[in-house]
């Protein structure tokens, strides 16, 4: 069994971006600038946004963190997005999800200008991705594709099973793995809460992507010997021995599944860091398109 080390692969992406940004500076060109919007005080969202801002610093991007109270109105948030849309210094806009219930995710996503939508959530980017056209690809599925590429995992003709059909991960992942492109060309099965015989289908997977958001859902009896397992889960589970009071659990029961795998992503240190690397890459591309 070998580890798909997302920390290492993401560092390689960030090291390259750092060089690319230095080159932009030498050429007197614009430096990428990411605006991140955080509404409320959700603990996990605070951590993710802080880590995105920190990564911007690491690679030499500018970043602006905009915070709103949990009670802020949808209109105020949309107005801020409009302002960022027209600000020529801002290359990428991300609004951390989930949003409070009184704010429509759909309206927010649709308001972000597609050429600044570095999260790849706007329907125009999703549509372009489905058609195989140049687009921003959502950071988690894009990060997983970059991880497969980093470790040169053979995908062509293999059976990939994606468990979970969210707009953020499962659905785009299924499209990318089935695309006629490098690290695609899989035969893909997408499973969800109504799937019958889930265990039997998972057992047929050469590549298994667990993205359903249930801690340790995938157990050893669901995984074929030699499979490549990608664990997208990051559930916080109470653990009083930790300073933070919790530990992160993936969607895969790592201890029992890992010995059966050819490759597996750990949690933490697998898909999580790749998501950030992919976001940084998208932000760089948004800026380059302007330069
Ligand atoms: N919440 C969970 N994943 C993501 C992501 O990739 N982007 C944003 N904006 N919010 C998220």
Descriptive report:
- The chain is of the alpha/beta class.
- The chain has ten helices and eleven strands.
- It has two domains: 28-113, Rossmann fold; 139-272, Rossmann fold (3-Layer(aba) Sandwich).
- It has a six-stranded parallel β-sheet with strand order 1-11-8-7-5-6.
- Helix 2 links the parallel strand 2 and strand 3.
- The longest helix has 21 residues, at 6-26.
- It is globular.
- The termini are far apart.
- The model has no long low-confidence stretch (mean pLDDT 97).
- Bound molecules: guanine (GUN).
- Guanine is lined by residues 94-97, 119, 139-140, 168, 275.
Which helices and strands appear, and what pairs or packs with what?
Elements: E1 2-3, H1 6-26, E2 33-39, H2 43-59, E3 62-68, H3 74-86, E4 92-95, H4 105-111, H5 123-130, H6 139-150, E5 159-163, H7 170-178, E6 187-191, H8 198-203, E7 207-210, E8 228-231, E9 235-238, E10 246-249, H9 254-257, E11 263-264, H10 271-290
Parallel strand pairs: 1-11, 2-3, 2-4, 5-6, 5-7, 7-8, 8-11
Antiparallel strand pairs: 9-10
Helix pairs in contact: 1-10, 2-10, 6-7, 6-10
The chain binds guanine.
Give a quick rundown of the structure.
With 291 residues, the chain is α/β, with parallel strands linked by helices. The chain is 40% helix and 16% strand.
Structural class: alpha/beta
Q: What is the CATH topology of the largest domain?
A: Rossmann fold
Shape: globular
* CATH homologous superfamily classification of the largest domain: NAD(P)-binding Rossmann-like Domain
Present as ligands are: guanine
- Can you name the CATH architecture of the largest domain? 3-Layer(aba) Sandwich
Strand order of the largest sheet: 1-11-8-7-5-6
CATH class term of the largest domain: Alpha Beta
Low-confidence stretches: none
